[in-house]
Inverse folding.
């Protein structure tokens, strides 16, 4: 019994590390989503690799897609610092966000909102 527990723990740790450090998954419809299946968006007012142009009420409606401190860049996905010292996912140098009005996985109600918000696609 004692040998099974370390093997199980090692298997669980390996599985956890593969999922925690991966870039957000791709939805079946070609849009990228966060780990909860919520659609990710970019904001035209953000500049590549610059600070977020979304603050105050904007940030409440469009929460940043946050990364854990241990998350690592992968392919076109990078991790950028936020003004408060957190980490935010970015795709091809542009910060990504979710939309508060997307209430369930797969919603994309923010697509082309005010001609400034766009889903992140493959």
């Amino acid at each position: 019994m004692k040998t099974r527990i370390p093997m199980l723990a090692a298997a669980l740790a390996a599985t956890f590390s593969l999922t925690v450090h991966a870039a957000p998954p791709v939805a079946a419809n070609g849009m990228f989503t966060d780990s909860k299946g919520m659609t990710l968006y970019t904001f035209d007012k953000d500049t590549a690799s610059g600070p977020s142009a979304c603050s105050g009420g904007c940030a409440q409606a469009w929460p940043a897609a946050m990364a854990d401190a241990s998350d690592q860049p992968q392919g076109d996905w990078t991790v950028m610092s936020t003004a408060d010292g957190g980490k935010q996912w970015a795709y091809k140098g542009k910060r990504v966000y979710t939309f508060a009005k997307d209430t369930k996985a797969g919603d994309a109600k923010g697509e082309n909102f005010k001609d400034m918000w766009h889903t992140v696609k493959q």
Summary: The longest strand covers residues 77-81. Residues 22-119 form one domain. Confidence is low (pLDDT under 50) at residues 1-24. The chain has one domain: 22-119.
